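Review form for a predicted model. The reviewer records the input and the model, then writes brief findings.
Reviewer: anonymous (R2)
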Amino acid sequence: MLNQYKDLAEQSLYGVPKNKNNRKNGNWRWVATNSNSNVNMNSRKATLTDLSKTQQTEKALRETEAKNRSIISAIPDLMYRLDRRGVFLDYFPAKNDKNPPAPEEFIGKTVEEVFTEDLAMWTRYYLEQTLSSGETQCGEYTLRVADSWQHYEARYVPCGQDEVLAIVRDLTERKRMESELRLSQVREREKALQLEKALRDLQATQSQLIQAGKMSALGGMVAGIAHEINNPVSFIYGNLSPAHQYIEDLLELLSLYQEKFPAPGAEIEAKIEAMDLDFLAEDLTKLLDSMQMGAERIREIVKSLRNFSRLDEGEKKLVDIHEGIDSTLLILQHRLKPQAGKPGIQLVKEYGDIPKVECYAGLLNQVFMNILSNGIDALEESAEKASAAEQAKMPMITVKTAVDPSGYLMVSIADNGTGISREVQERLFDPFFTTKPVGKGTGLGLSISYSIVVEKHRGTLTCNSVLGEKTEFIIQIPLA
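Model under review:
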């Protein structure tokens, strides 16, 4: 051991302050040597200091520094360190910066000396917030670079009591992509809305074509039936008047025979008594009058069928709206009469003095049919659910016509049923929407009626309803 100390002392004389020393257990340790020579006494004194912990600390610091530099080099963002005064202590440019500034342009300078006035104030604010709160602060700012605006995100991380590490990331590309994504989403939403609208329009058009085809076929069939009925009825009606005259002439001749020949013989008198000639002569005239009245009624029905069947007329014509309403009511007359277990429906017509209107008569008749049918359905449903006290109320449908001050023809069709809720009113004219049970409604009637009034006639179709009291549909069509 003394020889080792001697060697170390000698090494220190030659300027070797540190060395390794072998322990008794065979491990090595770092020591520092300090030697003094005494010439007079011809002796040397050596002092050894154990530097193992110091060396370990220095090694750990070197490793930590290398690790930190590796981390810094791996982070692509711009980083700098500021003290409380706003002075740059370090500056590490972004890795993707093609022309990075030299750190010397920042280190030792304040933020006011480097940044623009706005950015310097913004940086100082976050510097103070970070130091006062002791927590990481984050913010975004824009900076004009060359001819474009750049977007940045800055994170300020406290480093001890008086320093802050700033990590600045360029968000320009991300913002551009987010903006393009938002625009793309808006465009896709618009496309989706357009497709949804196109689908609704297609469904509505399809339903209208189907319904128009059905109504056209129905109109053709009704027109054909009306024509076939009209021919024999016209024949009967046309012959009733001469037949009436012929019978009157025959009765006059018979009366003349009775006057000239009062005693025709026993056989003839027996026949006159058997056939009750006086009653026959009186009743025959009444019979002919009744036949003529029935024929006239059939002619009116045929006329109504013809008016209603004008569904395929492609041109607007001047028509009498009252005639169309009356034709529709005549077709629905059987539903207004009392039936087994159902009360009759009172019909009130309040027709105003209105001019003829240029319109598609057959299509408007279809509108009247849909609205009146719905009103009758509502009244029948109300009667089924009505209490004993409510059954005393007479079901009623009121049809009004007038010309309003704005120059529109107005047709109002109202019933005193149970009314329609606000939620149902909002969807009343939507295609395929119905509140009726399956098999009793298609949800197309009011939708098609709305299209006929609004699109074909440039008018309006609205519904006003008070739940539990009434429902009123108002059709308005411009006169000019």
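Findings: The first strand starts at residue 18 and ends at 22.
Further findings: Confidence is low (pLDDT under 50) at residues 1-16.
Recommendation: see findings above.
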